[in-house]
Structure formats: structure tokens, C-alpha cells
Predict the structure.
Amino acid sequence: MSVTATCTREGAGELALRFTVKGDTTRLRLPERKAPARQDGLWRTTCFEVFVHESDGYWEFNASPSSEWAAYRFAGYRRGGEDDPGATVRNIETALSPETLEATFEIAHPPCARNAAIRIGLSAIIETNEGAKSYWALAHPPGDPDFHHQTSFAFALEEAFQS
């Protein structure tokens, strides 16, 4: 199994994400498709995550193949985790074949993404039908996977949004 991800800036204050999982996707546990809605606990099964660092904290955005999503604001390392009503994950789409799962979505108007340069962590939790989970990220700190750790914020977006 392999996971790749891309993140680009789109429009005024939006991030566009694409995650591609390659391998035997018939073995993946995928949540049932639902109406798009904010939902906690998406990381308990197959889920795609984006972490955006800012000098005084960071945001966590979750997108599920179910089309459910979450947006949290943290004041510091694992401090806070409050829903951020000003951020939205939208247009969650998935395409599935026996060899590929592709998930695309947008993060709409995250306050943190208006800065000229932002650091980002891209990560995924992949669960099999047997219940085994694998944790994918651009970078992992030593020890157990920890997407909240500063080591995981390994991607830099340098371009500023055009107004």
C-alpha cells in the first residue's frame, strides 16, 4: 500500500487537497457515504488529515470518504482542539477502483492559510477490513505516529493568496 498527497492554494483562502492510496483497495474499510456534515472521531477509521501550523498554534482538518469532516483549532501541541466554526471542509469526493482510492477536498477560508508562508502536515489513517490501521504522513517523529508533532509539519506553502 502507498499513499501520496498534494496540497495547492486555490482562490482566496482555500486549500485544495488530493490523497491517492494505491494497493489492493478491496481490503480497505471505508465508511458509508453520508450527507456532508461536521463529525468528530473520523480518525477512528480511514480518514485524511491536514494540519496547518501558525506561530501560536495550528489547525487540524479531517475529511472522511463518508463526506463527513471536522475542523479544530489548537492553541499549542494538543492544547485546545476546539471546533473552528470559521473553517469548512467541502467538496469531499472519492473515486474507488480495485487498485486506487482517490480522495479530493477543499478547506475553505482557513484563517491560517492567508499568511504568505504556512507549514503543513498531510496525513492519512488507512484501516483494513480486518481492523488493522496504518498511519501515513510526510514525516513522523521518533516513536509512535503523532500527526500533531511539529516534525509532521513538513510541507511549506510559500505563495501568498491573491485577493
